[in-house]
Amino acid sequence: MKSSKRWIVAAAAMMMAAGACTAKVEDEGKLPDVDVRGGEAPKVDVDPARVEVGTDTNTVVTPTVNVTPTDTTHR
């Protein structure tokens, strides 16, 4: 658990550091010339999963909740 918290903290620190950087494009560059010729999609034999959809009725017992409002005026 502590290891995952360390990763989260490290990732957050990296994102903050990356957000503090500025970059200026000096040369926009150029895309390469690409020659595309015909091709062929692969032939795939797929056996789809069998999915059965239906409905069911269940009773869910929920607790009774009493709510007492509080003063919501802002100071």
What would you say this structure looks like, in words?
- The protein is mainly α.
- The protein has 1 helix and no strands.
- The radius of gyration is 29 Å and the shape is flat.
Concise structural overview:
The chain is mostly helical and 75 residues long.
pLDDT averaged over residues: 84
What proportion of the residues form beta strands (DSSP E)?
Answer: under 5%
Structural class: mainly alpha
Main beta sheet, described? none
Q: pLDDT under 50 segments (min length 5)? A: none
Termini gap: 40 Å
Number of distinct beta strands: 0
Order of helices and strands: H
Helical content (DSSP H or I, runs of 4+)? 10-25%
Shape: flat
Q: Please count the helical segments.
A: 1
Give the key terms.
1 helix, 0% strand, mainly alpha
Write the layout of secondary structure elements.
Elements: H1 2-19
